[in-house]
Amino acid sequence: MFPPSQAQGANQAIEDAWLLTRALRHAAVEPALRGYEARRARRVRLVARLAASESTNRVPPSPLAALSRSLRPSLAGRLYTHLLYRYSSVLHDEQP
């Protein structure tokens, strides 16, 4: 089982490109870059904190492993979607 943030580097790069493209369409370059930076900083910090707190090569403690196995796939999917929503500028449809 992979931790949720393991693929977030690629996801964040795609979101950076998406938001930067939108920002540059509607403003002069310098203000667009400042706005882009301000919008992305909060979400990127969340992802970085999560990634720094994970131990990707360790077996989870028994109670945590048992809990993760006991979740219905539909519930696990909803929890993961909620987690991704916290990090996503695209899912929030942020405007530049």
Notes on the structure:
The chain has 4 helices and no strands. By secondary structure, the protein is mostly helical. It has one domain. The mean pLDDT is 76. One of its GO terms (molecular function) is monooxygenase activity. Keywords: Monooxygenase, Oxidoreductase.
Give a brief description.
With 96 residues, the protein is mainly α.
Instruction: Quickly give the structural class.
Output: mainly alpha
Q: What Rg, in angstroms, do the CA atoms define?
A: 17 Å
Give the total of beta strands.
Answer: 0
Q: pLDDT under 50 segments (min length 5)?
A: none
Estimated helix fraction:
over 70%
How many domains comprise the coordinates? 1
Give the count of helical stretches. 4
Mean pLDDT: 76
Spell the H/E element sequence: HHHH
Distance between the termini: 36 Å
> Percent of residues in beta strands?
under 5%
Shape: elongated
**Biggest sheet features:** none
